[in-house]
From TrEMBL, chains A, B, C, D:
Its cofactor is pyridoxal 5'-phosphate. Keywords: Aminotransferase, Pyridoxal phosphate, Transferase. The keyword 4Fe-4S does not apply. Pfam families: Aminotran_5. The gene is bhcA. It comes from Sulfitobacter porphyrae. Residues 33-323 form the Aminotransferase class V domain. This is L-aspartate--glyoxylate aminotransferase BhcA. Its EC number is 2.6.1.35. The keyword Zinc-finger does not apply. One of its GO terms (molecular function) is glycine-oxaloacetate transaminase activity.
Amino acid sequence: MSFQNPVFIPGPTNMPEALRQACYMPTIDHRSPVFGKILHPCLEGVRKVLKSDSAKIFIFPSTGTGGWETALSNCLNAGDKVLAARNGMFSHRWIDMCQRHGLDVQVVETPWGQGIPAGTYEAILKADKNHDIKVVLATHNETATGVKSDIGAIRKAMDAAGHPALLFVDGVSSIASMDFRFDEWGVDVAVTGSQKGFMLPAGLAILGFSDKAIRASDKATLPRTFFDIKDMQKGYDNNAFPYTPPVGLMNGLKLSLDMLLDEGLENVFARHHRIAEGVRKAVDAWGLELCAASPEFYSDTVSAIRTPEGFNATDIVTVAAKTYGMAFGVGLGEVAGKVFRIGHLGSLTDAMMLSGLATAEMVMVDLGLDIKLGSGVAAAQAFYRHGQASARKAAA
Amino acid sequence: MSFQNPVFIPGPTNMPEALRQACYMPTIDHRSPVFGKILHPCLEGVRKVLKSDSAKIFIFPSTGTGGWETALSNCLNAGDKVLAARNGMFSHRWIDMCQRHGLDVQVVETPWGQGIPAGTYEAILKADKNHDIKVVLATHNETATGVKSDIGAIRKAMDAAGHPALLFVDGVSSIASMDFRFDEWGVDVAVTGSQKGFMLPAGLAILGFSDKAIRASDKATLPRTFFDIKDMQKGYDNNAFPYTPPVGLMNGLKLSLDMLLDEGLENVFARHHRIAEGVRKAVDAWGLELCAASPEFYSDTVSAIRTPEGFNATDIVTVAAKTYGMAFGVGLGEVAGKVFRIGHLGSLTDAMMLSGLATAEMVMVDLGLDIKLGSGVAAAQAFYRHGQASARKAAA
Amino acid sequence: MSFQNPVFIPGPTNMPEALRQACYMPTIDHRSPVFGKILHPCLEGVRKVLKSDSAKIFIFPSTGTGGWETALSNCLNAGDKVLAARNGMFSHRWIDMCQRHGLDVQVVETPWGQGIPAGTYEAILKADKNHDIKVVLATHNETATGVKSDIGAIRKAMDAAGHPALLFVDGVSSIASMDFRFDEWGVDVAVTGSQKGFMLPAGLAILGFSDKAIRASDKATLPRTFFDIKDMQKGYDNNAFPYTPPVGLMNGLKLSLDMLLDEGLENVFARHHRIAEGVRKAVDAWGLELCAASPEFYSDTVSAIRTPEGFNATDIVTVAAKTYGMAFGVGLGEVAGKVFRIGHLGSLTDAMMLSGLATAEMVMVDLGLDIKLGSGVAAAQAFYRHGQASARKAAA
Amino acid sequence: MSFQNPVFIPGPTNMPEALRQACYMPTIDHRSPVFGKILHPCLEGVRKVLKSDSAKIFIFPSTGTGGWETALSNCLNAGDKVLAARNGMFSHRWIDMCQRHGLDVQVVETPWGQGIPAGTYEAILKADKNHDIKVVLATHNETATGVKSDIGAIRKAMDAAGHPALLFVDGVSSIASMDFRFDEWGVDVAVTGSQKGFMLPAGLAILGFSDKAIRASDKATLPRTFFDIKDMQKGYDNNAFPYTPPVGLMNGLKLSLDMLLDEGLENVFARHHRIAEGVRKAVDAWGLELCAASPEFYSDTVSAIRTPEGFNATDIVTVAAKTYGMAFGVGLGEVAGKVFRIGHLGSLTDAMMLSGLATAEMVMVDLGLDIKLGSGVAAAQAFYRHGQASARKAAA
């Protein structure tokens, strides 16, 4: 474990020093008023990152998966009907969780590489005259395929169908890195974690609930205690948790939120887009293709890159780790062996990203792919470089 | 937040520097072989701390409460009958969780200050001819009252009744600080967390399952995904987790286990007993009484101390925090306002403990209690001091 | 190295967490503008701590000893005459350094336990009609004996004699803990280090120079390069050092200065006095005496405590370290074996100090001294405790 | 200060996490035996890194400049004659220090870009029949020009002349990164610092003295106290320093030495050579030239790169810092504005180095230099990449 190179997995992401130090605080009494000064700024900051005025924010010592379970178990009853699209490993896993909790999932099978088909959702919702469907699930950013879906379009589909279902959105690998509009999109539950855009260690499930989702929890009978939002809310009302809170991680989250909001959310999103666009230029220069089928689906946090037929893409990840000490992501599920993934979210600079691209190139050449060394790097450099005007100004 | 004084809450406990540093490691790829080198030593070390040869160990990014839910949801079905004693706030909360998960709890109401009545359990189990009771719950150390229960006696009661129920033990505030014998006591599920005897931040639920408990999970139908031990086991078999693992905390756990096992478990337990005994000498010198009704119930990790009738014990905690920057624990539930608690587990020295006792004395005198300054400290010093032979040897 | 107990040596002192984190920042380019944002606040903050409007501040990667050498080598010529009092090990060492640099030191031998005799200084200076004496040395706080000298009185003596000598003050164990008035006292060079009142690791010599001292450096011919203040000043004028600066330590100093100035210097001094007074109450309760001969000499940063005739005071330090893991200071030079020292400067709370006193009591009893356990603690507690009014307010 | 990118200044270098943590230890009593367990492994480890069996090692809380002063002031008398070559800013500064300490320096002016001319040294030494020259100075690696000198050849020149002068070597930017042979080369004093090959913060001057140099110190009359090696040796003999030691930094040095010796010195040197060679391939691909005049002078720790006539090389450093947040080194003295420097020593990976090269390319293109983006990166990649055999093995 040399810790020298940055990581390029799509989360956990590289941790800024200041966040590590914030997490690394000594023990405090979590029942003292000090904890409230960590808790409430976290709740308020997350609400801002979600672009919501009124969402209730919940933070659990858990992960995004625990966040999904929180969404389901607080709002639904066994046997309830749920609409979901399967277009990657993470949407698949959420569907699987629904089924294991006794929900009746109507699955819209979608090619891996494409986003959620809002039109299909609309048709299904229109056909659901009895409003049996209680919840519509949407994975904002499929981490497995590097595919972004259009949540606003799904809301429009729901509205067009006049359907009262709740809208649950998995924003684990989008929130705090890509634009997310809880209020504007009419999201009812948004789910994320600490280890992606928030640049922290794994260990927090972070959720926003609309009033409608909170009301649904009054009647929901799926069993829950650890993930119960009412217990959690009671805790918050007393500056506390219903059990021992993860104080250090939340202290880190507080600082992460300060950093993100100080930079400005739009700047954060633009920075992610810029870094991602450089990666895409490199992929193009390599003569390779993204798993994401078309530009509208391109993710600004992770790129899944298809390798030629007959080549095992996982070898790239293995060789990069063993030979160059650099971490990329493997393909999962349907695209295992067919893609490798470059995570480009969180705390990254042009220089860091170029080191990732340069290493990927060496690995691909080592493995016999027909890639020209420096070609992807040059394409990204051409995109990243600031130009003569900027240089003249800096040098002045 | 001055972080200058040690904390004397009954967890989270004071973190040794080395453990803090181990926890806040930079990001690694949790799908790389590096993670396996953290995971497996954790599993093996926890098994040793539980004194078990064969328990399956599970570690979740959660807390002790999540550990309880893991125990219930993996082994039981809605409507199953459970036997439990309520003798403090934590046993109360576990009972409450059972009820919220649709279990039928037979509650043995027990005075707060006493341990679980093994005889009563035996009688109930003998009367349960149909073996309707599927699980016997036992809180090894009631953190709210500073009361230890005799788990070996409960096992004997179960055996005397010839009853096949599973035995679930909450060892959150005992494991790694007080003797715990998973195999000898025939425990089926043991539950603990990272933030007590393991001296780490909160954020890990740590469990041991017997084969019998694992088998029970084959048929258990309570819904679960995040806390599913089968998914987790499949993850472990691939050096992984079914979702993002809390790598840093587990790296801390690995080092904590090394530290505990290097010191020797019996030495760790003796150290806790010694520190605790000094606290009890001080309480006696103050003319106060423990909540624990008799010596057999005395906890070596936390002392709940009764204050005189008409005095609000919570004031001690408030004044200590505000005036002296020191954290003690309040009374909870039935004993709220009647006791204050001194946590004395984890990483503590005589000198640290004496600073806690000295501060408690100042606060009690400030609040008008009839306590002689220095009296409790002197009683603890007389117990802690090493004596002339030791001094002569050290000075030589 | 358990790092669990606070240290009670008279420096290096206990480091607040925030300062440790500030010191161990990652590498930056020390020739970039970033360094200027660390450097200049350090210079300005130190000037404020010295209570000077115009002193030039110099910071060297060195220690207090290097600071002394900086003072001498920048202002003096071989053969120059210097006036100094020897009343402890540190004033002795400074005299020794002068002699090794070829200076002619007129030594005023002073009983260890007493301060610098201003009257004697005045008589000598009056007698020095030719003004051969170029510098008057004064150790503000003799760390070896816990004796404070009255620097204002020395300035008055110099003025009464109408003597133009420079006044050099060793404030290593006083500055940032005890009142120091560079301008009011007409100090020409003040010397301190990072590891005492500034609560940082050792590694910085910190000095203030008056204009007069700066002018003296124009003609001073003692050889110097590393410690040359002119080179250093040229560096500062370019936001730099003449060699690689200790960036992390200076980043720590910047934060330390913020902390001290935010607390308020008078509050810092009052806090030190209060903690020290509690220690003195304990010493009195033990029936022991300070090395400092009378209250006017009592140091608020370190107490040297005399032990009975025939007892080896160093044993206290040895046994405390080996048996209780706690660090006190030994006696040095003339008072070796006759005193042990309790450092009470820097980042300390009442509770921390009481843990030191309680441990010292156990050690002394272990070693057969006729001390009553708890007696010193009780005396300090009675002084430290806040009283009923404060408690009622806090509890409200 | 984002701390995200590695630095490419020729020191201070990038600090491995483990070293930062080792430096970042809490306060210990530096007079306790614990300190000896840090001190002696440091002394022994440095001796091994110097490839010496018997050199006395001295570590001062200072920098390389202080190390130079230690060498001079402990071994020489005012007026002593010294032989030195000036071939860059650091050799220049050492000569300047000699002159300021009253030494008579015979300067061999040498083109910046060339190494020390051993032949000229030999001729001068042969001509010095009276052996007036007391010390021969040699800068092993001129950090300003990226020029390595052949110290073995200088020893041969001295031997050929039968001259008894001492040989002082500045190894600040070579030791622990490039081969250094104290015994074989007959070095009398070697000087280095903590912030280069040892990968630590600045703050330690580290020296090796031969017996002959130690003997010279018996008669040397240049004034010294802080840098006195006899005082220091007396300290070491008691597991101590003559003043407060920089404990944390030395704890870091201890671990750094373990890391270097575990890796194996020859492997460390090979790694530096490899990284450096990649940089030189890139420089060649850019069509630029090194300041170092020929391959025998190429430094494996820093490359000074000449830019075209009329171009201000310092702009590269300014723009890299302001626009890309990356630190390179400027040209100093004679080559100011004519070269920029890439430091490639200490803790670096291929990927890190490629990020530096890629950034330098963008900056040069931004500034209008005729450089092809990706060209230098590709040349370095071709050199760094491990090849198909290695990849096949890793993937297997």
